[in-house]
Amino acid sequence: MSASPPPRAVDLAIRARWIVPVEPAGAFEHHALVVDGGRIVALVPSAQLSTGWAPRSTVDLPDHVLIPGLVDAHAHSAMTLLRGIADDVALKPWLEQHIWPREGRHVSPEFVRDGTLVACAEMLCGGITCCNDMYFYPEASAGVFEEAGLRAMIGLPVLDFPTPYAADAEGCLRAGLAARDRYRHSRRLAFSLAPHAPYTVGDESFARIVTYARELDLPIQTHLQETRPELEQALDASGETPLARLDRLGVTGPGFVAVHVVHPGPGDVERLAAQGCHVVHCPASNMKLASGVAPVASYLAAGVNVALGSDGAASNNRLDLFAEMRLASLIAKVASGDATALPAAAVLRMATLGGAVALGLESTIGTLEPGKDADVVAVDFGALELRPCYDPVSHLVHAAGREHVSDVWIEGERVVERSAPLRLDRAAAAARATLWRERIA
Ligand SMILES: [Zn+2]
Fold it and tell me: Minimal CA–CA distance to 126: which of 73, 70, 172, 42?
């Protein structure tokens, strides 16, 4: 007769009504997530927790569902300061008449710091634990993400024309790589090269970007084929789709994240699949700017990984992955005339694992599997509007909202407790936003 081993001491156990780990699929009822050293070590039935584990801290969430932290796979975080400044315009006039002139006047490291701070508070409280950011002065945004404890992929922006940030592409790259040097050892930050778009960055700059990407092992992300005119003008000028051009220039591959791709041209779906590229779908922004509906179902059918993004608060006007999940599902059904298109489990996967895969972080985050970092979001299903609950995955996409997020952990560290951020002062961030309103308006 052998005695069973004593329970193993661990940092934390979170007991919840349901756990939706994304991988494996489905919802586990009355289970506990066991966390130690910032990592998930087990997912066990709550009733069996004490036989194997001796947690130093236990959190009981009897009405809640635990999900992996949401990944906003495309954001311009600092643009929270331009939230609602220009509604009801298409992309080209939105950029040329409203956004670029204001950025020209106001963008500075201080603007980026304050805007990113507002974004971090909004994202954390809404269950977003990882953000793929793309904006000027990445050194300023990296500092805020680090302070907030949010995981971020910092896109180092590149444009050929002068901005307050840099005179040209070379200046952008110099400043961006200096930011990366400063923060490259941060556990929660990663970096990528972020040429703005094929229509703002020329071949020579793309060639330089590819060289740096290969030398420094950095992924590349860019806006791509967001509007029909972008595709048509490229085809008229060269007979080549912008994606085909990037393919020819060596930009595409498994480290390439194409944002939007609302309008694929001839051969583009096959090109994305063959090169192992990732697509970030931003349904709210695409709808608001009337850019169109990305053919997400055909990307998934071709085997292309798809993630979800907000595109920042200037064109959305929320940083809200719950809203993006619901819109992604609804718009796919309307666009295809097929009610079975993009079911709830598929969009939840895009908002979590799909984002992690796009950022090359799938061994660290994206699911609640043992061995991964404990980036966990608790959603309170106790509210009247979430009752009754037959299927928590359906509710997460179609009934719940970010207002139901109660608690958030990143790498096992609790960063939101009962809807309040623990590292950030939400009132101070709101005051900064108000101050910028006075300057910009
Ligand atoms: Zn964007």
Answer: 70
Whether 242 maps to a domain, the answer reads yes
Residue 324 · residue 285 · CB < 8 Å:
no
pLDDT tens digit string along 52-68? 999 999 999 999 999 99
User: 57 C-alpha vs ligand 1 centroid, how far in Å?
Assistant: 40
The range of the structural domain enclosing residue 343 comes to 70-358
Tell me the pairing of strands 376-380 and 53-68: antiparallel
CATH number for the domain harbouring residue 383 = 2.30.40.10
Q: What 3-state class would DSSP assign to 199? A: coil
Burial 335-374 (b: 16+ CB within 10 A, else e): bbeeeebbbbbbbbbbbbbbbbbbbbbbebbbbbeeebbb
Do 12 and 88 lie in a common domain? no
How many Å is the Cα radius of gyration of the chain?
22
- In angstroms, what is the span from residue 45 Cα to ligand 1's centroid? 42
311 CA distance to ligand 1 centroid (A)?
Answer: 5
Q: Which ranges of 184-227 would DSSP assign to H, the alpha helix?
A: 203-216
The answer as to whether 425 is a domain residue is: no
For 301, the 3-state DSSP assignment is: helix
Residues 283 and 166 in one domain: yes
Q: Which of 296, 327, 358 is the last residue of a domain?
A: 358
Are 122 and 263 within one domain?
A: yes
Q: How far is the CA of 223 from the centre of ligand 1 (A)?
A: 6
Please tell me the distance between residue 424's alpha carbon and the centre of ligand 1 in angstroms: 25
The number of domains in the chain is: 2
**What does the pLDDT average to over 419-439?**
96
Which residue in this structure is represented by tokens 């400063």?
182
What residues flank ion ligand 1 with Cβ within 5 A?
311
Q: What is the CATH number of the domain that holds 106?
A: 3.20.20.140
The pLDDT value given to residue 202: 98
